[in-house]
Amino acid sequence: MPAEPPRDQNEDPAARATPRIPTGIWVIGFVSLLMDISSEMIHSLLPLFMVSALGASALAVGIVEGLAESTALIVKVFSGVLSDYLGKRKGLAVFGYALGAITKPLFPIAPTVGVVLSARVIDRIGKGIRGAPRDALVADITPPALRGAAFGLRQSLDTVGAFLGPLLAAGLMWLWSDNFRAVFWVAVVPGPGCSQWSCWHGACANPSARRAAGAPTRSTEKTSGA
Which residue among 53, 91, 166, 197 has the highest number of C-beta atoms inside a 10 angstrom radius? Predict the structure, then answer.
């Protein structure tokens, strides 16, 4: 039998410990959960709101939804490139969440379909801005061996929010006798909270986290002449 290779006596015991998903991933996941609850509470009721409360036609509803979702997909293409160029993944992600949060109060006060369209488009611009930088940030702050688990955790929390949002909206509609605007005001609450949480809880890649994830730091880039 081949002899077991000698173990480095100077090896840090922490390095041999079972790696854990970084706290920053949990922060990003719960921010996604809160934002999805807020967004889905509104989006699940919005077509009915536009038709019954604002008198919109089916064509108008389709135009609003089509423009909003296509805007998010187009912005996603450029946000990832921009985050690579600027190297400010956290800043772009926080800006995207903040942009989505500030549009939420527009829905309960919207007097016309035009205001709803503006709010939806701005909200989807925020979604497009934050998507790629947020996923790149997850990769930056996670060790390579845990990247699959980290992405799965963030996506699962996001999915939980997408499930709870419409469920909560339906319950409140039943409780408040189909008062759309009251439900929309409740949906406003999680938005500012998740934006502040993502900003203040340090979900960003520090040099040690980047080394653990195998990403080059500025010092190694300078040394290698990159």
Answer: 197
